[in-house]
């Protein structure tokens, strides 16, 4: 199949690989998904050392940010009494601070307090198992929405602590996986790796070049049944995150309800958008932006991305026909 090549316009020439490096391939499971790494490292750096460094970072994310773990920091915060203050470790603070900044910038299209709505619609850790979607009772939906709202979060940035306003249920599912990718890259760098391609649940970051001097070429994710020519990007100092309605959804009366909740309405996003892919230097930011653009929809999302110089690929589905739109920042990368 033919493909199109994307080269970041501000791409810096990767450093020349030092002699004596070896390719390390590692993989595993985390956060209900998989992770994989290809890294060029000094031969003196053992596979076990690299794997342990990665595992410790990923476990930190689970211990602090997984709503599926009853004893995680986020779960304990969600159960805490109203008015209580909670000191935050660096990782949790970084993600919450970024999430609130994104909520402000997107006027609530991103909201880290959307957890009760995610549960209500059957997509969260607190959901009642069921075989098919049942639309929530309007009164229950209205009362659940009252529990949400990023404005209810009082974050003391100087003291690095947060207050539980009462019934606030944080959910970092739209940003934590991207942060985990950034932490894996940090672990590889601190171990002494000189080049890598790291992936967690389909979100990726690349640095440097492969042993043959070629970039880490990565194909942008496309929806199933979309047979358009692939786009491949040279992933050096760059991360990729994709939000797609085909990843997790239920069908009800001929309508597809994707797992992404629009915090402004309290209901799953329903639009012609099949997927949004974002490229950014930080995977945490790319992850959150992919969610924001999905919630905003094609027209408002494109406007948001253009105004901020975001490199993004929008793919819409209409009667099983796919159409793509590139933001100017992404189009500028095309060879």
From TrEMBL:
InterPro entries: ApbE (IPR024932), ApbE-like_sf (IPR003374). GO terms for molecular function: metal ion binding; transferase activity. Mg(2+) binds at residues 174, 287, 291. Magnesium. Can also use manganese. It catalyses: L-threonyl-[protein] + FAD = FMN-L-threonyl-[protein] + AMP + H(+). It comes from Herbaspirillum aquaticum. This is FAD:protein FMN transferase. Keywords: FAD, Flavoprotein, Magnesium, Metal-binding, Transferase. It comes from the Bacteria. Its EC number is 2.7.1.180. Belongs to the ApbE family. The keyword Nucleotide-binding does not apply. Pfam families: ApbE. It is an enzyme of class 2 (transferase).
